[in-house]
Specification:
By secondary structure, this protein is an alpha+beta fold. It is built from 24 helices and 25 strands. It has a nine-stranded mixed beta sheet, covered by helices on one side. Helix 12 packs across helix 17 and helix 18 crosses helix 20. It holds the Pfam family HATPase_c_3. This is Heat shock protein 90-6, mitochondrial.
Length: 774
Amino acid sequence: MLGASRRSVSAALRAGGARHRALAPDTTTSLSSSACPSFPNPLTENKDKLPQFQTRWFSMFSAPKINDPNHPTHLNIRNDILISNRHESTAAAADTSNPPCEKFEYQAEVSRLMDLIVHSLYSNKEVFLRELVSNASDALDKLRFLSVTEPELLKDAVDLDIRIQTDKDNGIITITDTGIGMTRQELVDSLGTIAHSGTAKFLKALKESQEAGADSNLIGQFGVGFYSAFLVSDRVVVSTKSPKSDKQYVWEGESGASSYTIREEADPAKLLPRGTRLTLYLKHDDKGFAHPERIQKLVKNYSQFVSFPIYTWQEKGLTKEIEVDEDPAEANKVGEEDSKAELRNPKDVTTEEYNEFYKRTFDEYLDPLASSHFTTEGEVEFRSILFVPATRKDDIVNTKTKNIRLYVKRVFISDDFDGELFPRYLSFVKGVVDSNDLPLNVSREILQESRIVRIMRKRLVRKAFDMILGISLSENKEDYEKFWDNFGKFLKLGCVEDQSNHKRIAPLLRFFSSQSEEELISLDEYVENMKPEQKDIYYIAADSLTSARNAPFLERLLEKDFEVLFLVDPMDEVAIQNLKSYKEKNFVDISKEDLDLGDKNEEKEKEIKQEFTQTCDWIKKRLGDKVARVDISSRLRSSPCVLVSGKFGWLMRSQTLGDVSSLEFMRSRRVFEINPEHPIIKDLNVACRTSPDDPEALRAIDLLFDTALISSGFTPDNPAELGGKIYEMMGTSLAGKWMSANPEVQHVPPHQSAGSQNPEAFEAEIVQEAGGQK
């Protein structure tokens, strides 16, 4: 069995929810009423003009009567409908006691077209069952529709259902529906024609007579669906009984044959009260499809939302009598009650029911963070339920997921997408989409080029954003914190890949800041906290909160109490740079040149520039190509200098997303800014004027630059060389400082320490002296 029935959930969510019931034969092949799993089906909409049965589409076994039996003598293509000739044989059957067997032949063109369909249209053979079950469901739908004006069609009082029986030993599958069936003329006019739909004629007649109703939007590609049976079958037999006829007819065709036969059913044991029985005699290599477990799996995968009960046969390897879970009459009664259940509005569906549907459909064990159930109408009509998972399973670089399940009129089509229905950055969203406007044989090319799919994608993306925004506005802040931890990187990727949705993505972003290092804040919160004189949104990129907090770039902004966003994730700055602005406020990187804080004093700046112009040129000459230029800084207060990047360059290593090669390109574009108020810079200004060639002054410039590299987030080109400079200056500064208090300690002349170019030797000397004191 496929599992236990969940009628309570099904009744709550379904506009005709799917139910698959298993027929379990014992040693004498008896009927069992145990139910397969039925997922709740919220993808429904009210159909006021129809009786309260469960709903689905058109049928492979349905076709209106054609009054004109004359057909063209060649293959015609009219309005995308292919019509083949059929030549009726006048030869009677050898046994005159049986009804005559009439032979019909396809034209050569039609035979080749059928071969193309069987061998090229479908890449996956198992879709044959999806097509045939869909057609059977359509036959039931058509009967139900016609019964509104012709109630006598239901006079046989046979339940509306689909039954699938298998014979794995002989490789036979039998699919029986109790739908509208076909008359002999309908068999002649429909089953011999590729992509020539009786239902299409039926709809055309309804449209012309202005009698079309809400449930008349049925599939119009009957021929293609029916001939999918030959994907796995050598021979196909269709036995059908229309309530409009007293006789039952049998259509029979073979794979690769140029003809087929139609005869009247003469065996009383094979007569049907109404509907169609399709018997597939499987090819040798495809007999595995006749295993009951295989059939049940395919039904569950492709047809779980079909609106009518689907019964399957299942073997029981037991020698004792099988216990029946429910009385067969009770099972039929339950099915009848379900079919009469009122279609429910999404507002009437509880959160628990949505959660149950989500967990069973996507094999999840945690409730989703949010769900969105909606129907879109107008240019394109489809229904969908979307969910935001509680945890992340897929990596951000995984473009292919199975998170979106596409159905066409409640028949499963595919869950293998590569950005056709959702962009890559929203690939974590899970959901079910049911469209009435797509064909059953949806190919990757159709998904990529279809205007319908593009419209669906646009609306699905908007609904996904509305759902995520709802989480962010929830009173339970932990929900959005959980969402951001799992899927924040996805939204940052969206800033790069989807410019058209920047306005929807930006309010969902979260960052740390100089005024909020413990809790993430939104851009809305930042803008709300801006100072009246503040014009821009300031940010700095760093590899950690500690680095960002202590960066020299912040000194002046912190003094003015301007909040600065801390971008500590490698993707943060990429996202911000793509957004460019938010609510008419530009994003400004405080680590780049020409930072304007809105308080410039042009006269004072002019005086300082005149005083330090010679010093800036002197420092630039010493540093050479390491920097683009040397400027006076307006952003520093306590630091003597800082390295900033050009307007269109990067500075932080984190800003390059780990691409070290890009640093080489930007190295010569850095700007060395000096703080004219700092004592070290004032001393160097004097040295520039009095002793520009002094080795100590030049070494001080080198050390300032290397120190600025570190404080600005870079690693010096030669860390060992920098260490040597630091040791050298320490030796100069400390030499002899404690000697007067310890005359017994051997004195090392200052010039030896200062002149040493080997930091390891100097360090060894210090250690030796310390050891000598012990």
